[in-house]
């Protein structure tokens, strides 16, 4: 008796569900996988000792003094997380128009790097040279007569990058989006003997509304004068973002980053396809806080959405993700 069904005829005997019929087949054909090796954990550093200060807008995330950060990074390393990214929240009276504190060799970010490198030598340290944590106006560069000046800012971030490398940073991740910064930093690092220090370019950093909780975390939200539209990429412009990224590749970037993440998965894919460099997404504070807030209200399964979004970055071509979920997701993966 012929048991052919109409469905067999219309599909040409091709049934997509055959590969989905059991857990073992689904595992066997799974295309994208998430592991602890995919995580970079961003952390916030504050002056003082013994401080673990919860960030209201980012439930589960804390500002930490250097000693507490060292303890937290040890936990991250024990979980197998390969790298961290550090962001300082310095005293207000140290912030000025030019962000001069970025050029102090033993400033907060460099103290944290040295302490973490000494205590946890098997984890990578990624540092940012943008000036916004150090300026009195909250901008990523030097502000003169209402304009963020490109070339003077580049000169300063090169000097800051060398100091960060001197302190033990493994990768410099410049986020201020000034023209020419990647090539200038590469030349500066090499001239200072830091040929082994990599550059992870914020290749496409968009002028996004998703950064709000981060600005609370480093206390720049109340300082910011105007917006950052003259140096960040418009969310409307994918092709411009690729041109920006191409320049960073030509200037010597070792790795690429797309920021924010989930709303820009198309950019992640385009960057990876176009250049083939290791490509990362930054699942930024607004993305994190949205998931946390909805989960706290019982509107979504927070753990499931956390893991789904992280996996989607891998599907979009990312080699890894900077995420505030790193510890939580690493523990989830360890439990299986």
UniProtKB/TrEMBL annotation:
The active site is at residues 205, 259. Homooctamer. It catalyses: 2 5-aminolevulinate = porphobilinogen + 2 H2O + H(+). Pathway: Porphyrin-containing compound metabolism; protoporphyrin-IX biosynthesis; coproporphyrinogen-III from 5-aminolevulinate: step 1/4. This is Delta-aminolevulinic acid dehydratase. GO terms for cellular component: cytosol. It holds the Pfam family ALAD. PANTHER family: DELTA-AMINOLEVULINIC ACID DEHYDRATASE. Belongs to the ALAD family. GO terms for molecular function: porphobilinogen synthase activity; zinc ion binding. One of its GO terms (biological process) is protoporphyrinogen IX biosynthetic process. Keywords: Heme biosynthesis, Lyase, Porphyrin biosynthesis. It comes from Neorhizobium alkalisoli. PROSITE patterns: D_ALA_DEHYDRATASE. The keyword Lyase applies. Its EC number is 4.2.1.24. It is an enzyme of class 4 (lyase). It comes from the Bacteria. InterPro entries: ALAD (IPR001731), ALAD_AS (IPR030656), Aldolase_TIM (IPR013785).
